[in-house]
């Protein structure tokens, strides 16, 4: 049973990385938007990530844990890539 749960967590983690990547693309495309609209867009993508996690894992605690982990890993990856490949 634990192996199935770990696979589900991994799948949710990967789906959420795709969602965070989509958010980054949408943010890049809306470069001239105000901070308020970018914040709303982040909340929408966060809701979508949590909804997908809850749908697959069926546990609020595990969903929040995986969501925080995926967002943290994606943030660290973004920072590392900006240091290695500066866009500006």
Give an account of the 3D structure:
By secondary structure, the chain is an all-alpha fold. It has one domain. 86% of the residues lie in helices and 0% in strands. It contains three helices and no strands. It starts with a helix and ends with a helix. The mean pLDDT is 92. Keywords: Membrane, Transmembrane, Transmembrane helix.
Number of DSSP strand runs: 0
Q: In percent, how much strand structure appears in the residues?
A: under 5%
Shape: globular
Helicity, in percent?
Answer: over 70%
Main sheet characteristics: none
Alpha carbon gap, first and last residue: 48 Å
Keywords: Membrane, Transmembrane, Transmembrane helix
Transmembrane segments: 36-57, 64-87
Which tags fit this structure?
88 residues, mainly alpha, 3 helices, 0% strand, globular, transmembrane, transmembrane helix, membrane
Brief overview:
The protein is mainly alpha-helical and 88 residues long.
Topology:
Layout: H1 2-29, H2 35-57, H3 60-84
Keywords: Membrane, Transmembrane, Transmembrane helix
Transmembrane segments: 36-57, 64-87
């Amino acid at each position: 049973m634990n192996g199935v749960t770990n696979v589900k967590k991994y799948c949710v983690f990967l789906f959420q990385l795709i969602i965070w990547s989509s958010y980054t693309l949408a943010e890049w495309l809306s470069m001239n938007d105000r901070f308020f609209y970018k914040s709303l867009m982040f909340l929408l993508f966060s809701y979508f990530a949590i909804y997908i996690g809850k749908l697959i894992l069926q546990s609020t605690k595990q969903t929040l844990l995986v969501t925080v982990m995926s967002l943290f890993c994606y943030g660290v990856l973004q920072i590392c890539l900006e240091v290695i490949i500066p866009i500006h």
